[in-house]
Design a protein that fits this description.
Four copies of one chain form a homotetramer.
Chain A: E1 6-10, H1 15-28, E2 31-38, H2 46-54, E3 60-64, H3 66-79, H4 96-110, E4 114-116, H5 125-136, E5 141-143, H6 145-148, H7 154-163, E6 179-182, E7 187-190, E8 220-227, E9 230-234, E10 237-238, H8 241-254, E11 259-265, E12 271-277, H9 279-295, H10 298-317, H11 323-334, E13 341-348, E14 351-358, H12 366-369, H13 380-401
Parallel strand pairs in A: 1-2, 1-4, 2-3, 4-5
Antiparallel strand pairs in A: 6-7, 7-12, 8-9, 8-13, 9-10, 11-12, 13-14
Helix pairs in contact in A: 3-8, 4-5, 8-9, 10-11
C-alpha cells in the first residue's frame, strides 16, 4: 500500500462517499480533506460539512461553484452546440473537469498527496476525473475505491458502515432502483430499472421535468438575449450565467422540456442506457443555434458543425483539459464575437419552437434574398457562371466516363 | 441565340412553367418535351398532361416516381442521419437530383439537345438541377429562363400569358404571398410574408401539419421496423418505402410533428428564411438514430457523425452525383447492414419520443453494463490501465508545463 | 461603363500590366494609382516607378513588403504544415491576400473607387485577389481586364502597346514559352511548354534551384531554431523572418532542393500542370514538422493533421480573409506556444534529412520509452487494461456477428 | 493460472520467441502450435520449423504470405496515400493484422484456446495484435509474456534459455544495440543507440537501403502502371503485387530511397524515436499520388486527403478490423476504379521525381486549361459570376463589420 499522508475526497455527504471517507482513513491511515461543491444538484451542503466533521475531518471545503460551472464550462461548451451522438447535451460530462480541478487545487493548498473520487469502474466518470487529475498534476496519487476495495456487495458496504458508525437511513439499506447524477445543467438516471432498452422508463426516474402530457396546454413565450455567444438576459432582464440557467430550468420543467431516453456508447467500450433531463440546457441549445443562424457566416457555421462531433466526444471522454479540446475551443470562441441579439421562443408541452430572431449583427439581408425587386443587390446572371464553374469538374468527369 | 431543336422541360402544369413552355417555343422555335413527375407533392398530374397537349407538345412524360424517390434518394440520405445546419432534413434538396436524372434520360430517349428548369436565379434549386445535368450529360444545353428572359415583373408574365392563350386563374394574377415546394418528404415555404426572420410565420403557410397546439391531447404509440438501415414496416406491417413514408406523414400531420422555422445559408451566398414541414421524415429520422444507437458500433457511429455535416452540405449544394457524395455513401452504406430491429415511439403534440428499441443485432449487453454482479464479464481493474495510458500524454505534458 | 474616378492597379512594371494601365486610362478615363510591391520576386522596383510616371500616374506606391509577407502570411501558414493536395506548399496562393489587402488600403488612402489586377480568367489568382477585395471592402469596384477587354490575341496587345507608346522589348513580342510567378517563398511556372503532363519539364523552366544532379556531392549541415512555432535563427544566428527565408532559399537553391512538378486541381474546376520551386520553404516545412514531433502533444498534432487539408484548401481557393480560415488559424496558433527548440538538418542533392531535434520543451521522455529498466516510470501491466477496454467494443461486435 | 490446452504462438524462430515457446510449455503445461510467416522479412523459415520441432511442437505452421500481405493489406492502405503523422508509411502497423488473422484461423483449425505474441508492453504492436484477436475471436485467451512473466533482465532470459536447452548464440547473449522489425514493406529500428533524438542514427541501423551519399551519381528512369488504384506493372512488365514491391525495394535500396528518422506518438501515450526504411513503398506512394493527380476528380481527391489522417491513425493504433476502418476503406476504394495509367519516375540519390503521368482515364484537358485559344471550351466570363457568388457572404460580412 502506498504511503499517503493526506487525501482530497470529492465528497457528497451521502452514504457511499461517507463509506469511502472512512475506508480511506482505515486503509491509508491518512487524513482526509473533503471537498463538497454546489454545482446545482439541488441538495443542501451543510449536512455534508457536519458529517465530515463527525467523521473526523479537519479540513473541509464546501463551495458554491454554480456561477463558475455555468460561465466557464457550460457556456463555452454550448458555444459549440455540442451534442454527443447527435442528442446528448453532456450534462454529466461537463461537471467532472471542474470538480477535478478544484480537488487538485485543494490538494496543492493543503499539501495533500492524493485525490479520490467515488465513481465506479464501469463508467465514464472515473475517466473524466482521472484524466483531469493527470492533466493538472502529473504526480498526484489517484484513488478509485470502487475499483480497488474488497467489498463485493451492497451488504458488505452496509456492514462496513455499521461497524464504522456511519449512519445508514432505512432507504439506503437496499440498492437504489436506479443511479442518479445531477447538477445545474441536468439530471441523469441509469441502471437497474432502466437496464432494458426495449422498455420505456418508469415515470419515477424523472426528477427535473414534468411530462409533456402533464404540462399545461398553453404556450409560454420567452426571449433570450445573447452577447459574444453567451446568454445574458431572459425576457429582457439581464442575468448572470447561473441565474439564467436556473430560470430556464424552471421554464423547461414546467413545460415538459428536455427529457431524453437514449442508448449511448461509453468511452470504456460498452453501450449503456440513460435517461437525461436537461430542461434549461435544451432551451438554451435551441436558442443559441437560432442566434447563430442569423449572425454567423456560413463558412464559420459549417466548420463549427464539422468540428462539433469531435469536440463533444472529447468532453464526453474526459479530455476537457487536453490541448486538442483547447484548440477546438479557440476556433469556436473565435467565431462567437458577433453572436449577439435576441431569440424569441415558444415553449409548449415538450416543444421549443423558435418564433423569431433579431440582431444588430444580423447577416440576413432582406434586400438581397427578396423575391421582390432587389434594386440590383444581386445579379442573377452571376449564378450562371457560378454554376458552370462549380459543374466544370463534373462535366469533365462525365465526359471521360461516357 | 443557340440553335436548339428539342428541349425537355421540368413541367408542373402550373402557370409559371406553362409560361416557360410557351417562351421556349417562341424563343427557340424548338419542340418542347414536358416531364411531369409525381414525387408526392399532392397534386393531380393529368391536368399537366392536358395543358401540355393544349400548348402543342407532342412528347409528354407523366410519371409516378414516388417509390424511386423514397427508395433511392430519401432512404439512402436518411441512413446518414443527414441534417443541414443541424436541423434541416433536406426535403427540397433531395428531390432535385431525381428530376434532373429523368430529364437527362428523357432527353436521350427523345433526342433532345437541351433541358430546362423553372428555378429562379437566387436559389439553390437552379444549382441542384444544373449540377445534376452537368454530371449526367456534359454536353447538354441548359436553359434557365428566370435568369435569362426579358420579363421584369409579375405583370409582364401575366401579359405574356394572355397574349399566348395561357389560361390565368384569378388567384394567380397577383403574386403569391409565399412560394411553396412540396414532395413526399416535405413541404417548404419561402419568401414574401416570411421575409422578416424576427416575425413568426403566419399559420397559413403550414400545409402538411396541424399545429402541436391543435393536435389531440393523446399519445399515439407506433413502431417502425428496420432492416439494413432502411424502414420496412410500420406497427409490424411490412410496407414499401413510399407507403411507409406516406403513412408516417399522416401520423406526423395529425400529431403536429415536423415543423421547422429557420434561417439558412444558401449555396449562392446569402441567408434566407424558410419554413419546412417534414412530418414523416422527422419521425423516421428519430427512429433511425434510435435503431443505430442499439446496433451500430461506436467507431462506426462516431465516424458517421463526423462525416454527416459534409454529406448534408453536398446534398444541399447539389452535389448528389459527385464522386465525393458517392464515396461518403459507400462509407455510410457499409455501416448499415446490421441496423435492424424495432423502434417504438410515442407521438404527442409535436414530440417524437423514443420509448423502446430492440434488435436481434443488438450490441447492448446488459450482462456487461449492469450495476449488478456481472459474473466477470467486465473486469473493473482494466479501467485503471485504460485510464493511465489514456492519461500518459497528459501527464507528460503537465510535467513539462510545470 | 461604370463611372470610375480612380483605380488602384497591382502593377509589376512589366509589359502586360503596363498595357492594363493604359487600357484603364483609356477605357474609364480614370486616374490610375499604381501599387508595386517587393515580395521577394527578385526584380528591381524602381523601373516600375519610372514607367508609371512615364504613363502619367501621379500616385505611385512602391513598397518592400518582404518582412510582412513572411511574418504575417508565410509563417502562420507554415505553422499548419499546409500542403495542398499532399505536396504543394502554396507559394503563389499565400502572396495574393497581402497584395489585395494593400490595394484596398491604398484605395482608402487615395480615395479610389476601384481596384484592378492582372490575373487571367482561367486561374486561381483572380479568385484570390477578388475574394480578398470582397472581404476587405464590400463596395469597391473590381476590374479584371483579362476577362473583360476586347483583345483576342498577343498581336492585339502588342498593337495596342505600340499605339499607346508603351515600349515593347523584342523578347516580349511573342508569347513567353511559359508563365512565371515568383515571390520570396517560391517560383511557379505554368503553361505552354508545360502543358503535356506526360512530358518532364525542360530545364529552362527552373529559376530558383539547380538540379539535384548538378548540386555538389557534399552534405551541408544546418540548424534552425524555433520559438512559438516560428523560425528565429539559422545555425544559431538570430534572423528576421524574411532574412531567414532568404538564407534558406540560398541553401535550397545550392543543394537542388524544393522542385515540384505536379498536376493540381484549380478552384475554377479544371486540372492544370505546374512546376514549383520552393527551396527555402521546403527546408522550413521539414524542420517545422520535426520540431513539432518533439514538442507537440499527440492530440494536438493529430488534430492539426486532420484540419490541415481544409486549411490548405481555403488558402489555395483564396479564402485567407474568411472567418473559417481565421478559426482554423486560432486553433493552430493555440498549439504552437511550446514549439521551440533546434532542428538539425542535412541538405544533400535534393534531400532534406532531419538529423536531430532538441528542445527545452521536449515531450520525449527517454526514461519512459527506454528498452532499458525504466525504474517504474511506466507500468507495462497498464497496457493490458488499456488494450482490453479498447477492444471491448470489437469483442462485443465479434460476439454478435458470430 | 488459467487452464489452457493449446496455444498458437507467433513464432519467428529467434531466441526470444523460443524462450516464449518454452515458457508457455512450462507455465501452462499446454501444447504450443507455432506459426511462422514469410512476410518478406528476409529470413529463412525452415530453421524456425526445425527449432519448433526440437522444442517439442507437433503442429507447426510455416507459410509464405507475401502476396496476401501486399495485395490485401499494403495496396489497400496505399490507395489511401496513408501517412501517419505526415511522414510514416506504416510499414510495421500494416503487417500485424495479417499475423493476428492467421493466428486466429490456426487456433480454430487446431482447436487451440489461446494465442500468444512476443511484443513488449510499451509498444504499439501488442495493441495491434490483441485488437486483431479481439475483433476476430471475442473469446480467445490472449497471452503477452513480456507483460506477464517474471524475468527482469536479459540475464534472466539467457539463464532461462540455458536451463531449458534453448541454443544461445554468442551475439545474442548481450542486448542488441537496437531492435528491428522487418517485412516486405519496410524495416524499422528502435531503442538503445537510437534513444537520443538529438543524435543522428549510426549508419549501422540501416538494413534495406544504402545512403543517398553512397548511391550512384546517375538517374534511373522507371515507370509504374496502375489499374483500379493498384500497381500492376513495372517498366511495362506485368507483375504480381509482391513481385512489384520486391522489385521496387531493390530500386529503392540501390538509389538510397526511403529512409526516415522520426519522433512519433505511440498509441500507448509516449513519444518514441524510430528509423524506418521503406524503399519500394516510398516510390510506390509517390507514384500512386501522381497517378491520382491525373485521374481523380477534385472532390474525391480532397475528401481522401481529409479522411487520410484518421485512416492512418486507425491502422497505426491497430484498428484494421474495426467497422470505421472498413467504412473508410469503402469510401477510398469507391474512388479508385479509374486510377489507371502510367507514371514515370526518376530515381536519384534519395530523390523520387515524377517525370510524367499519362492515362486513358485522364481528367486533365489541355484544351480547357491552355493559355492558347481554347475554342470556347471555357468561358472566362463565367469566372466573374463564380467569384461574385463565392464572395457574396464575405461582402455581406464586411458590410456588417464596417
Amino acid at each position: 500500500m502506498t504511503d499517503l499522508k493526506k487525501i482530497v475526497l470529492a465528497y457528497s455527504g451521502g452514504l457511499d462517499t461517507s463509506i469511502i471517507l472512512k475506508w480511506l482513513q482505515n486503509t491509508y491511515g491518512a487524513e482526509v480533506v473533503t471537498f463538497t461543491a454546489d454545482l446545482g444538484q439541488g441538495e443542501e451542503l451543510e449536512p455534508a460539512r457536519k458529517k465530515a466533521e463527525m467523521l473526523g475531518c479537519k479540513e473541509i471545503y464546501v463551495e458554491d461553484l454554480r456561477e463558475t460551472f455555468v460561465k466557464d464550462y457550460v457556456f463555452p461548451m454550448m458555444r459549440a452546440n455540442a451534442l454527443y451522438e447527435g442528442v446528448y447535451l453532456l450534462g454529466t460530462s461537463i461537471a467532472r473537469p471542474l470538480i477535478a480541478k478544484r480537488q487538485i487545487e485543494i490538494a496543492h493548498e493543503t499539501g495533500a498527496d492524493a485525490v479520490c473520487h467515488g465513481a465506479t469502474g464501469k463508467g465514464n466518470d472515473q475517466v473524466r476525473f482521472e484524466l483531469g487529475y493527470a492533466a493538472l498534476d502529473p504526480k498526484i496519487k489517484v484513488i478509485a475505491p470502487w475499483r480497488d476495495w474488497e467489498f463485493k456487495s451492497r451488504t458488505d458496504l452496509i456492514e462496513f458502515a455499521r461497524l464504522n458508525q456511519i449512519p445508514v437511513t432505512k432507504d439506503k439499506e437496499g440498492e437504489a432502483p436506479f443511479s442518479v447524477d445531477a447538477n445545474l445543467l441536468h439530471s441523469s438516471s441509469e441502471g437497474k430499472v432502466l437496464e432494458d432498452p426495449a422498455v420505456a422508463p418508469p415515470s419515477i426516474v424523472y426528477q427535473r421535468t414534468i411530462s409533456p402530457m402533464d404540462a399545461p396546454d398553453k404556450a409560454t413565450e420567452i426571449s433570450i438575449d445573447f452577447k459574444e455567444g453567451d446568454g445574458v438576459a431572459l425576457n429582457g432582464e439581464a442575468m448572470s450565467p447561473a441565474t439564467l440557467l436556473t430560470a430556464l430550468n424552471k421554464l423547461g420543467h414546467d413545460n415538459g422540456i428536455g427529457r431524453l431516453d437514449l442508448v449511448e456508447n461509453r468511452f470504456v467500450g460498452m453501450k449503456s442506457r440513460g435517461v437525461y433531463e436537461t430542461p434549461g440546457g435544451t432551451i438554451y441549445h435551441v436558442a443559441h443555434r437560432a442566434m447563430e443562424s442569423l449572425t454567423l457566416d456560413r463558412g464559420a457555421a459549417h466548420l463549427k458543425d464539422e468540428l462539433m462531433p469531435r469536440y463533444a466526444e472529447l468532453i464526453y471522454n474526459g479530455f476537457w483539459f487536453s490541448p486538442e479540446r483547447q484548440m477546438l475551443q479557440a476556433a469556436i470562441d473565435q467565431s462567437q464575437k458577433d453572436v449577439e441579439g435576441r431569440v424569441t421562443l415558444t415553449l409548449y408541452k415538450g416543444n421549443v419552437i423558435v418564433s423569431g430572431r433579431s440582431s444588430p449583427k444580423s447577416l440576413y439581408q432582406e434586400k438581397i434574398v427578396t423575391f421582390e425587386d432587389d434594386a440590383g443587390a444581386y445579379d442573377q446572371k452571376d449564378a450562371a457562371g457560378f454554376i458552370r464553374l462549380n459543374g466544370l469538374r463534373l462535366r469533365i468527369l462525365a465526359d471521360r466516363d461516357k
